[in-house]
Design goal:
The complex is a heterodimer of chains A (about 270) and B (about 250).
Chain A lengths: L2 H5 L7 E12 L2 E13 L4 E5 L6 H9 L6 E6 L2 E2 L7 E4 L11 H9 L7 H14 L15 H13 L5 E5 L7 H17 L3 E6 L2 H7 L2 E6 L4 E7 L11 H14 L12
Parallel strand pairs in A: 3-8, 3-9, 6-7, 7-8
Antiparallel strand pairs in A: 1-2, 1-4, 4-5, 9-10
Chain B lengths: L1 H23 L10 H13 L2 H33 L1 H16 L5 H9 L3 H25 L3 H9 L5 H11 L1 H25 L8 H10 L3 H34 L4
Helix pairs in contact in B: 2-11, 3-4, 3-6, 3-9, 3-10, 4-6, 5-6, 6-9, 7-8, 9-10, 9-11, 10-11
Classes of the chains: A alpha/beta (about 270), B mainly alpha (about 250).
Chain lengths: ~270, ~250
């Protein structure tokens, strides 16, 4: 296997969430985290799940990741039901979750080591390719604590992309970063997504972030967690989160999120 | 360099004060010998080999028991962290026995094994193993759960998660457990050597004991210096590299 074939992008997969429900027991009370949620995500589509905290959007992401199981319903990737975590669906968390005992390169290599059919040199080449993609090729031998928050998330992105997944699951990955760093990453993520077409499910509570990144925005409501409305975002890419158009779009969705007037007909699906 | 000079100056002054106290003859020279006679004892004992032999005997006992304690304690600690049943049983035993000063094992060891190397080995292992179990268990429980989750999404599972994530992630705790185990083992071995004569070899503790029997204060103080020196060297040689590694990787250096 050569580097070229290895980093050649896997075809993104279709995701199909079918009538998923999930309950938690917390302090003697049963919390209905997800109630009968269905969602279709197309191949290479970028979908953002937006909602207040506790609305179940992260739970849904964890179920798609295979880290939690649904009480009812099922999730299919490329037509196959999910039974557990898998390299075809990589996850980026809000915390970078990088391993401090490894340097940057070894962190990116972690998942690659479990991928069969690659020699050590090939793995290193693949890791370096993705570190370059996120702009960190000069930091391969740095330790995690030496990096800024934004750099850490870039490493986490490289680590998630390295095993060449078909789906990328992102759970508020930029929430803890400062505004300037975040805006840079919006640009980078859109660019990478356009070059290396992945199916992306992106969880956020920030409507503007969702409008900036997503082809589609699914609006969650809590108690019980369910998808209330979905909006298609047709703004041209690369989108700038500070643009007036985007802000207008976001304002209308926010109004719907607050439970005010329904979103204008033209955007609602 | 300036720091070293200051430190050197401190010790020279301390020795001078000691010598001055000796010369003032406030106490009998049997109780407060001159630093020179302590130095002469150490020099002669080193020359005729007694000091060297005793150090080797002691360090061999320590190394054997300490390494065994760690090799046994680490996997047992991982088991207590992994399985609730082991935690409720062995974990509780470890917690209890760790509070027992390890020198309290000496009478039992003597009755079981007699005045043999095995008794010494047993005491040192008992000094090490419980700290090691508790520290490892503690370390695993302090690993941020997100590490294991992240590893699982990358295709890691079962033993692989334990070896490549939980174990290295608990290293800061494991190293401090190793340090504590060393301290307990070293103290209990010294106590055991002072307390019992083991015919298969005279350790530093034995020399200390005979120094008392012979009223040879310069021997007692000289051997105490050797024991302190070994403790300091162990800290520098055994633990400093680990701690530097942890500081560098985890960024905990001030």
């Amino acid at each position: 296997m050569t580097l070229q074939t290895e980093i050649q992008d896997e075809t993104p997969s279709k995701l199909s969430v079918q009538r998923v429900s999930k309950r938690f027991r917390s302090g003697g009370r049963v919390v209905h985290a997800l109630a009968d949620v269905s969602l279709e995500v197309g191949e290479g589509e970028f979908v953002c799940l937006v909602g207040p905290s506790g609305c179940g959007k992260s739970t849904l992401l964890n179920i798609i990741a295979g880290l939690e199981s649904a009480d009812e319903g099922r999730v299919l990737t490329a037509g196959v039901p999910i039974t557990g975590p898998g390299r075809d669906r990589m996850v980026m968390f809000q915390e970078p979750a990088l391993f401090p005992w490894l340097d940057v390169l070894d962190n990116v290599l972690f998942g690659l080591k479990l991928k069969p059919g690659l020699s050590r040199n090939e793995r290193i080449e693949v890791a370096q390719f993705y570190l370059k993609l996120v702009g960190l090729e000069k930091f391969t031998r740095a330790y995690v604590h030496e990096l800024s928050g934004g750099m850490k998330q870039r490493v986490a992105l490289a680590r998630a992309l390295a095993p060449n997944p078909r789906v990328l699951l992102m759970d508020e990955p930029f929430a803890a970063l400062d505004a300037l760093t975040r805006e840079q990453l919006y640009g980078d993520l859109q660019r990478i997504w356009q070059q290396h077409r992945k199916t992306i499910v992106f969880v956020t509570h920030n409507v503007r972030e969702a409008v900036c990144l997503g082809d589609r925005v699914a609006l969650f409501s809590a108690h019980p967690g369910s998808i209330r409305e979905q909006f298609k975002v047709t703004l041209p890419r690369l989108r700038d989160i500070n643009s007036v158009e985007l802000a207008r779009y976001a304002t209308e969705i926010t109004a719907a999120l607050r439970g005010g007037a329904a979103a204008p007909e033209e955007y609602a699906i | 360099m300036k720091r070293r000079l200051k430190a050197l100056l401190f010790f020279v002054v301390a020795l001078a004060v000691w010598e001055a106290l000796f010369r003032a003859k406030l106490w009998s020279p049997v109780l407060v010998p001159s630093p020179f006679s302590v130095g002469r004892y150490l020099y002669e004992a080193a020359l005729d080999g007694t000091l060297w032999d005793a150090t080797v005997v002691t360090l061999r006992r320590l190394a054997l028991g300490y390494v065994s304690g760690i090799v046994l304690g680490l996997p047992l600690g991982l088991l207590t962290a992994r399985f609730r049943a082991v935690r409720d049983t062995l974990g509780l035993v470890a917690l209890g026995l760790q509070t027992l000063p390890s020198v309290c094992w000496v009478p039992l060891a003597l009755l079981w094994f007699g005045q043999t190397e095995t008794a010494m080995f047993f005491v040192v292992v008992m000094g090490t193993i419980w700290s090691m179990i508790i520290a490892t268990d503690n370390g695993v429980h302090n690993v941020p759960p997100i590490y294991a989750r992240a590893a699982r999404t990358m295709g890691s599972s079962g033993l692989d998660v334990w070896l490549r994530v939980m174990l290295p992630a608990s290293l800061p705790f494991i190293v401090s457990g190793m340090k504590q185990g060393w301290a307990f083992a070293w103290r209990s071995l010294m106590a055991a050597e002072i307390y019992v004569t083991i015919l298969s070899g005279f350790g530093l503790g034995n020399l200390l004991h005979y120094g008392r029997e012979l009223n040879a204060m310069e021997q007692v103080i000289g051997i105490m210096f050797v024991i302190i020196l070994i403790g300091l060297l162990a800290d520098k040689i055994l633990f400093s590299p680990w701690e530097r590694f942890l500081h560098r990787r985890w960024g905990t250096e001030q």
